[in-house]
From TrEMBL:
Zn(2+) binds at residues 256, 260, 286. Its EC number is 3.4.17.19. This is Metal-dependent carboxypeptidase. One of its GO terms (biological process) is proteolysis. GO terms for molecular function: metal ion binding; metallocarboxypeptidase activity. The lineage of its organism: Bacteria, Pseudomonadati, Pseudomonadota, Alphaproteobacteria, Rhodobacterales. It comes from Marinovum algicola. Binds 1 zinc ion per subunit. SUPFAM superfamilies: Metalloproteases ('zincins'), catalytic domain (SSF55486). Belongs to the peptidase M32 family.
Amino acid sequence: MSAYDELMTFQRQTEALAQVAGRLGWDQETMMPPGAAEQRGEELGAMEEMLHARRTAPEVGQWLAAVEDSTLDAVGRAQMRHIRRNYERAVRVPAALAARIARTTSVAYGKWARARADEDFAAFAPVLSEIVALRREEAAHIAGAGDAYDALLQGYEPGATGAEVASLFDDLRPGLVALRAAVLDRPAPDPVSGSFDPAAQMVLSRRLAEVFGYDFDRGRIDKAVHPFSSGSGADVRITTRTAADDPFNCAYSTIHEVGHACYEQGIDAGYALSPLGQGVSLGVHESQSRIYENQLGRSRAFCHWLYGQMRDAFGDLGVTGEEAFYKAVNRVQRGFIRTEADEVQYNLHIMLRFDLERDMARGKLDVADLEEAWNARFAEDFGYPVDKPSNGVLQDVHWAAGLLGYFPTYALGNVYAGCLYLALQDDVADLDGQLARGDLSGATGWLHANVQRFGGLYEPRAVIEQACGFAPSEAPLLGYLEQKFADLYDL
């Protein structure tokens, strides 16, 4: 075999093992008995040591040096771009450090879940301090003389920098703050009310997943404390959660995770178990989950269809008629939880987390001071105090999982989704008519053809620009939000 063929055979085995490690993580958050946490940490640590050894194996460097990119087609060159970038990143991180991060974050999940249930940040702070220290150490190895936070961010969004993200947020913030103030100054529509059977919510959840194109032959839905999607190719699993007084939590968590899952299921099957066989970045990934959840799932047309589905599932919803239901779905109100936030306020939650984790990564904020910093920033941004840790610093699982640098990708995903929706509306005839019939095939088919099938073939911004025909910016998202909520709130 050629050096390229040998490299790709080796890489396929590495990707397969990474999928096995991912399945261990899925099990940990869904079905693993709580007493297994310490052992699972050892298992995941062992897997990470093996994966790190493969990713940094001398043979990989030799194959990379032997392959002439000019002899490859576009797919081959893209494969090499990913493998080379990942190799150069991995060889800078000591194997023992990579294994320790895996073990520590595995154990931290259970500690976070218990601390969240007990409203006790102090119980979680020691392991979070260890995680932050480990990530700082990792970032120092990767960044060298560069910015530590950029090193972490680029693990999720290749090519992005903290400075660029901060500039984007500076452009987004004034419009969002002004729109939020205007909306909250108007009377809020009535919310849905009642008791919503969790079993019926899960039945509806499955129905919604099918409507949005999720393939249950290659996936499944389970419950988790914090909804997530896991896997790629032929095994892509999602989770959701239920609350007896809030059916939207389950419905829209499901739609959001289906957006992630359909991206992974929609990638060209020929890229399976290769660097191209997964979403190219977390920002592009979030563009799919957010456009499924918001521009499509919270649209007036789709809400009119969903109203009938929810009436069939739950009976009286406490609101009368399709339009009242649409307004309830898009109700802007005071709240603490990022995953439950409306479209107007969601990105403000991300900006808060971005600034805090950037300071932690750079050593400017200690974990001992994190809860106080969170609460002060939240009161400043939202105008009211955090009432308990589970509504504040303990609400998200990301830092427990060691995902420093991840949060900005949510806002990048919203920006990308705004751009994609503008192009989708131009290209899909009678989009609203289809959504009003519960027919998502036109919209999801467009996203599959223009984004999902490419997997990692193109760089993140390039795949969005190619799909839209223009460079991504915050303008389409702000325009969409201002138009939608001006109409909803008669601004």
